[in-house]
Design brief:
Order of helices and strands: EEEHEEEEHEHEHEHEHEHEHEHE
Shape: globular
Structural class: alpha/beta
Largest sheet: 7 strands, mixed
Oligomer: single chain
CATH class of the largest domain: Alpha Beta
Number of strands: 15
Amino acid sequence: MQSNRQIILESTPRGIPTPENFSLRNAPMPEAGDDEVLCRTRYLSLDPYMRSQIAGRHPSGVVVPGDVMKGETVSEVVRSNVASFSPGQIVRCMGGWQAYSVHIGGDLNVVADHIDPPSYALSVLGMTGLTAHAGMIWQAGVRAGECVVIPAVTGGVGSVAAQLCAARGARVIGIAGSGEKCRYAVDSLGTAGCIDRHSEDIEARFGELCPDGIDVYFDLVGGPTLRAACRHLAHYGRVVLCGLMAEYNRADRSPGPDPGLLIAKRAVVSGLVVYVYEHRRDEYIWECLPLLAQGKLHQREDLTVGLENAPAAFHRLMSGQNFGKVIVKV
């Protein structure tokens, strides 16, 4: 009898999650009831916000020991009791860390043929890309000639943000975790420079690479890097707060930047929650398809094969070892 493989949270991690915090469970195969659709997971997106779900601090939900890990997937319809969906269709849904999932029709979104490969619905043409575009284009309004600083620049969101800003004529400075990643940022993402956070003094390099100050800082990490960037803001600089990668694995929160400094800089600080822009997802996709076709936008995917390997891939993501958007091919 066929079963449904699931990854559950075995124990709450202290610090960076390890594979030992998760376990593989064989559950009964779910069945589609009236007005429901049974889907088989093809690709699973792994994202830093999942660590915040485990800590009980994320608006999208909480995961406690014994729960199946939550997550967005690209899935294939296996059986449908909804007239608008047919077996074989590829859909995007919150399938979670499991091989099969059941949904009502309203929770499924068809992955269009022009999204190719289908995993792009989870990366450059999915929530990752939408986050980058919403933060830099719609919220910060990045303009040509501005100095834009993006930490975690070779990650899923950061890499798309860098390319979108460069395509608009901005001067992009990235921050990454190795010399190899910094070379990739300059050679492939269009950044004018990149700071190796492990071997260089970030604040000193801000002074060298951004002599007139930082016009836009896309905060994906929080912590000391955010405070350093705020000290180097240009007058009327904009800060978009989006992620807390430097703090997700901590039980407490580090202090934020000095409000007096932000006042003196006449800075605009705004928070970004990508779900607010979900209704504009198609607008974003159609805006970016030409950039993909022209080679001005691309996504490096850090692909792991096998659901059983998702915990190890998540550990690499949360310890900064990933290179690109982390996807599991189930």
